Amino acid sequence: MSAEELRRHFRRVYPECSRRDIENLVSAIISKKYWRVHPSRSDIYYAVALTRAKIPCINGFRAKSTAPGPVVVSPRAARFCRRGRVLLVRRGSGGTFTSETVIDWPTFLRLIRLDEDKVYKYLIEDPNPPAFLNRRAFAALLRKMRADTMSTPHC
Fold this sequence. Notes:
alpha+beta, eight-stranded mixed beta sheet
């Protein structure tokens, strides 16, 4: 798809996003950008999905993304993987990339503004991370973060 076709497509898919947000998504796809989840850890990345996860392989389904290599998406998250959604990608042994969580673009824009330590704790260290993080699931995650912050004693 050309850049203009991508812009039109994502304006339809994400009507709540501003023109600038859509332009950032298209730019990330064209220039193959990916981001670290935590600045001091280099094993977890955010990468934009380029294809659906339909090709079966060991431990899930293969999808192309802006990560440095092909990504194996877990069976739970594979049904949510589409072009323009963000994959939470973990670099495994041997340079393989796996993803357990798919995030839609508007939620990703809100997620990257949060504290990296909290995001790492609730999305990566959690033994059962959400398969799909959209606005509704993100609101529940924020409530959980706030509840844990309130219940933690401050010294």
